[in-house]
Amino acid sequence: MTSSDAILARLMQLHPKVIDLSLDRMHRILAALGNPERRIPPAIHIAGTNGKGSTQAMIRAGLESAGLRVHAYTSPHLAQFHERIRLAGELIPETELAAVLEECEAANGGAPITFFEITTAAAFLAFSRAPADYTLLEVGLGGRLDATNVIDSPALTVITPISIDHTQYLGETLEQIAGEKAGILKRRVPCIVAPQEPAARAVIEEKAERLFAPLRIARQDWDSRREGDALIYQDDHGLMDLPLPVLPGPHQIVNAGTAIAALRELGFGRIEARAAVTEGEWPARMQRLTHGPLVAAAGDCELWLDGGHNPAGGAAVAATLSAMAKKPTHLVCGMLNTKDVAGYMRPLTSVAQSLTAVAIPGEPNTLPAEDTAAAAASVGLAATTAPDALTAVRRIAADHPGARILVCGSLYLAGQVLRENG
């Protein structure tokens, strides 16, 4: 166990709830730390239900192609906590991570604070001490009361597509959820808005009008689409013919457009836009696995990994599979008990031949494999269970040689797979 692991374990015990949306505790600890959030490089704040991470990765690639240094904050991590905090493009070093975590722990003085809040404070502290040109901040949950929403004057805000998710925290309706996401809007700060359902767009527009926040809205002020093997991006400045995103899936056309719109708003052009789509990397989003024990167990089967976990994520995976070369596809799926499991699986019934359900090891909120299988069966997927992903992959490979296997359903399962396969 590293020093940071031991500190993180202690920080997990500071609040009885994993999620308790409020900004009061953040303001308290940041004040005790001397308000480092006021000294970070210009922030680009990103909220939304799906596509936040991919969009952030493409914005970062574009900015870095211009020779700029970029901090980035994202969650959750996959293989190690350090992934959440990038300092000028590099994962935060262990010694520095342990130091800022200890400093935040001391400043907090044992008071109740959630794990996400105190680690977000640590990220702000690290960002305030390292020179950079921009800071990319990905919202953890919602927006209005998210721990990242303590930045008074970001350079830009971005709202990716909004859909139903986390209803126990954000509200039951799309309008309520959009209201929470639109909470990152700031007075007179421009916002890039990805394609939205009309109800969500109306909420964003109403909030922006009250704050005099200029909106750059998809399919009104800018557009991105696929034509053959090219990505076409168009806005008031003209049209760009670009390569398709290296991140696979039709939904990445939208994410790429959102990232390019953000770069254009910041004053960048074709070179940075091209880098965004060709150099953006984001693991566990329809990622082809190429080595490790799981790949060996798959034999001559293709092995893919995706961490989408809500109905919109399921639809995106289904659309990606539909666009790939036709091949029998079998799913290995682990889900959390806080998710709309049947809603996630419903779009996959048209592209998958079977689903093998597993529990997510070490995750207290994992859905039992039997419950995941029952949800799959309820929407028409042939389903069975396995004790773990390795066993599931080995069985599928034996029964369906040459097939495509997709491990999916949760970022926590994806993280375990990545850790175990290097």
From TrEMBL:
<feature type="domain" description="Mur ligase central">
    <location>
        <begin position="46"/>
        <end position="262"/>
    </location>
</feature>
<dbReference type="InterPro" id="IPR036565">
    <property type="entry name" value="Mur-like_cat_sf"/>
</dbReference>
<keyword id="KW-0460">Magnesium</keyword>
<comment type="similarity">
    <text>Belongs to the folylpolyglutamate synthase family.</text>
</comment>
<dbReference type="InterPro" id="IPR018109">
    <property type="entry name" value="Folylpolyglutamate_synth_CS"/>
</dbReference>
<keyword id="KW-0067">ATP-binding</keyword>
<dbReference type="GO" id="GO:0008841">
    <property type="term" value="F:dihydrofolate synthase activity"/>
</dbReference>
<comment type="function">
    <text>Functions in two distinct reactions of the de novo folate biosynthetic pathway. Catalyzes the addition of a glutamate residue to dihydropteroate (7,8-dihydropteroate or H2Pte) to form dihydrofolate (7,8-dihydrofolate monoglutamate or H2Pte-Glu). Also catalyzes successive additions of L-glutamate to tetrahydrofolate or 10-formyltetrahydrofolate or 5,10-methylenetetrahydrofolate, leading to folylpolyglutamate derivatives.</text>
</comment>
<keyword id="KW-0479">Metal-binding</keyword>
<dbReference type="InterPro" id="IPR004101">
    <property type="entry name" value="Mur_ligase_C"/>
</dbReference>
<keyword id="KW-0289">Folate biosynthesis</keyword>
<dbReference type="Pfam" id="PF08245">
    <property type="entry name" value="Mur_ligase_M"/>
</dbReference>
<dbReference type="Pfam" id="PF02875">
    <property type="entry name" value="Mur_ligase_C"/>
</dbReference>
<comment type="pathway">
    <text>Cofactor biosynthesis; tetrahydrofolate biosynthesis; 7,8-dihydrofolate from 2-amino-4-hydroxy-6-hydroxymethyl-7,8-dihydropteridine diphosphate and 4-aminobenzoate: step 2/2.</text>
</comment>
<dbReference type="InterPro" id="IPR036615">
    <property type="entry name" value="Mur_ligase_C_dom_sf"/>
</dbReference>
<dbReference type="GO" id="GO:0046656">
    <property type="term" value="P:folic acid biosynthetic process"/>
</dbReference>
<dbReference type="InterPro" id="IPR001645">
    <property type="entry name" value="Folylpolyglutamate_synth"/>
</dbReference>
<keyword id="KW-0547">Nucleotide-binding</keyword>
<protein>
    <recommendedName>
        <fullName>Dihydrofolate synthase/folylpolyglutamate synthase</fullName>
        <ecNumber>6.3.2.12</ecNumber>
        <ecNumber>6.3.2.17</ecNumber>
    </recommendedName>
</protein>
<dbReference type="GO" id="GO:0004326">
    <property type="term" value="F:tetrahydrofolylpolyglutamate synthase activity"/>
</dbReference>
<keyword id="KW-0436">Ligase</keyword>
<comment type="pathway">
    <text>Cofactor biosynthesis; tetrahydrofolylpolyglutamate biosynthesis.</text>
</comment>
<dbReference type="InterPro" id="IPR013221">
    <property type="entry name" value="Mur_ligase_cen"/>
</dbReference>
<dbReference type="GO" id="GO:0005524">
    <property type="term" value="F:ATP binding"/>
</dbReference>
<feature type="domain" description="Mur ligase C-terminal">
    <location>
        <begin position="296"/>
        <end position="410"/>
    </location>
</feature>
<dbReference type="GO" id="GO:0046872">
    <property type="term" value="F:metal ion binding"/>
</dbReference>
<dbReference type="GO" id="GO:0005737">
    <property type="term" value="C:cytoplasm"/>
</dbReference>
<dbReference type="GO" id="GO:0046654">
    <property type="term" value="P:tetrahydrofolate biosynthetic process"/>
</dbReference>
